[in-house]
Write a structure and sequence with these properties.
- Helix 2 runs parallel beside helix 12 and helix 3 packs parallel to helix 4.
- The chain starts with a helix and ends with a strand.
- The protein has a 7-stranded mixed sheet with strand order 8-7-9-10-11-14-15, sandwiched between helices. The protein has a 6-stranded mixed sheet with strand order 2-3-1-4-5-6, with helices on both faces. Strands 12-13 form a two-stranded antiparallel ribbon.
- It folds into 2 domains: 191 residues, Rossmann fold; 145 residues, Rossmann fold.
- The N terminus is likely disordered.
- It is α/β, with parallel strands linked by helices and 383 residues long.
C-alpha cells in the first residue's frame, strides 16, 4: 500500500472530525429568546423603539460577555412584537410571544396594554418584566409572573399629591386626566394622596388621549378658582393644557405626573412651559453611577439620544438574565424564584422586588422648567 493511499482514510476521518467539531460547539450553545412588546408604529412608536433599543443593548452586552447559564454559553436574541398601544392588539402580541417560545418578556409600554397582556403571560407561566407601564393594578392582582423595574403611580403620583399639599400649600386643587389606564391611574393616585394629607380637590375633569382643545375643562376649573392643576397624561397634551391656561389668564400652578416632561413638552408649550413642574419615575440618569456612560454608549450604538425609558428596558432585560444565571436555567419554573429574590445595582438604581412584583426601591424626581429647560428639584422614595 502506498503512503498516499494509507493516509487517505486518516485524512477523511480527520476531516470529518474537524467538520463535526464546530457543530458540536454550536450545539452546546443555549439559544435564549427574550420577548419584547411595545408600540413600534403609531404616535407612541418613539417610546417603543427607545425601549427596544434598551433591551437590545443589554442582550448585546450579555452576548459579548459570553454569559453562562449552567454549563452552556447563552446566546440571547430579541423577539419583538408591535402592540400598537392597543389593548386588543397587545393581547394578540402577548399570545404570539408565548407561542414563539420566549423564556421571558420585557414589556409593554402602556398600562392599557400591559394589564390585559399580563393575564396571557400569567396563564402561560412566563414572567413579564414591565419597564414603563405604571398603573398599580399591574402588580396588585397577585400574579406570580409580573414584575416591574419602574415605580408605580402609587409611588410617583402619590409623591405629587403629598407635594401639592405639603410643599406648594395649594388650597384648591384641580385635576384633569386623559382617561387612559395610565393617565387615570396617575390622577386617581394623586387624588388619593391629596385627600389623605388633608388637601382639597375642587374639580376633576376628563378628556381623552386624542383631544387637542381643553377649553371646556379649563373654563370649568377657572370658575373654581383653583390654585394648582394636576394633569394625568402625556407631554403633547400637557403642553396644550398649559398653553390654554395662559390664554385664559389662569395663574394656577401646573403639576404633571410621569410622561409630562418627555420629548417635546417645552417645544410644544413655548413660553407657557416656564414654571411647569412634573414628577417623573426614577432618578435623573446623569446622577446615577454609570448613567452618563450608559447614555454615551446608547448614542454611539444607535445614533440617537435616549428618549425616556430605554434604561428601564435595559435593567429589565438584565434582571431576567441574572435570574437565569442564578438558577442555571432558562425555564420559568426554575428561575422565577431567583427573579423574585434578585438584587443588583441597575443603571436606573437598585433593582429588587416586593412580594407583589413591584419595584422595592421605587423613586421619583420632581423637575421644573426654568429658563426653557427641565431642571431637577428633588428626588424622593415612594409615599
Amino acid at each position: 500500500m502506498s503512503l498516499r493511499k494509507s493516509l487517505k482514510p486518516l485524512a477523511v476521518i480527520a476531516g470529518a472530525m474537524f467538520a463535526i467539531a464546530p457543530l458540536a460547539g454550536h450545539a452546546a450553545d443555549l439559544e435564549v429568546k427574550i420577548g419584547f412588546a411595545a408600540p413600534l408604529t403609531g404616535e407612541n412608536a418613539g417610546y417603543g423603539k427607545d425601549l427596544q433599543n434598551g433591551v437590545q443593548m443589554a442582550l448585546d452586552e450579555a452576548n459579548a460577555q459570553k454569559i453562562k447559564i449552567g454549563n452552556d454559553t447563552a446566546h440571547f436574541t430579541i423577539v419583538a412584537e408591535d402592540d400598537q398601544a392597543d389593548p386588543r392588539i397587545g393581547v394578540q402580541a402577548a399570545q404570539k410571544l408565548v407561542d414563539s417560545g420566549v423564556a421571558v418578556v420585557v414589556g409593554h409600554f402602556n398600562s392599557g396594554t400591559t394589564i390585559p397582556a399580563s393575564q396571557i403571560y400569567e396563564t402561560a407561566g412566563i414572567p413579564v418584566i414591565d419597564p414603563a407601564a405604571t398603573n398599580p393594578v399591574i402588580t396588585r392582582r397577585g400574579f406570580k409572573n409580573t414584575f416591574m423595574v419602574i415605580s408605580t403611580d402609587a409611588q410617583n403620583a402619590g409623591n405629587a399629591g403629598v407635594y401639592a399639599v405639603e410643599t406648594t400649600k395649594a388650597k384648591r386643587i384641580a385635576i384633569i386626566d386623559d382617561r387612559t389606564a395610565f393617565g387615570q391611574g396617575e390622577a386617581d393616585e394623586f387624588e388619593k394622596a391629596v385627600k389623605a394629607h388633608g388637601g382639597n380637590i375642587v374639580a376633576h375633569e376628563y378628556t381623552d388621549n386624542k383631544a387637542v382643545d381643553f377649553s371646556t375643562q379649563l373654563t370649568k376649573i377657572k370658575s373654581t378658582n383653583a390654585d394648582l392643576i394636576f394633569f394625568g397624561g402625556l407631554d403633547n397634551q400637557a403642553a396644550g393644557v398649559v398653553k390654554k391656561m395662559k390664554q385664559l389668564g389662569m395663574n394656577a400652578q401646573f403639576l404633571g405626573g410621569g410622561g409630562v416632561m418627555d420629548a417635546d413638552f417645552i417645544k410644544l408649550a413655548g413660553d407657557a412651559a416656564e414654571g411647569a413642574q412634573a414628577w417623573e419615575y426614577g432618578r435623573p440618569l446623569a446622577s446615577l453611577a454609570g448613567g452618563r456612560d450608559f447614555a454615551a454608549k446608547f448614542k454611539k450604538t444607535f445614533g440617537v439620544d435616549i428618549v425616556s425609558y430605554a434604561p428601564f428596558g435595559y435593567d429589565g432585560a438584565w434582571a431576567a438574565i441574572k435570574a437565569m444565571q442564578a438558577a442555571k436555567s432558562i425555564k420559568p419554573n426554575d428561575y422565577r424564584d431567583a427573579l423574585r429574590s434578585i438584587s443588583f445595582e441597575g443603571v436606573t438604581g437598585p433593582i429588587s422586588f416586593n412580594p407583589d412584583g413591584s419595584l422595592k426601591s421605587g423613586l421619583s424626581t420632581l423637575y421644573q422648567v426654568k429658563n426653557g429647560a427641565w431642571v431637577t428639584v428633588v428626588t424622593k422614595g415612594g409615599s
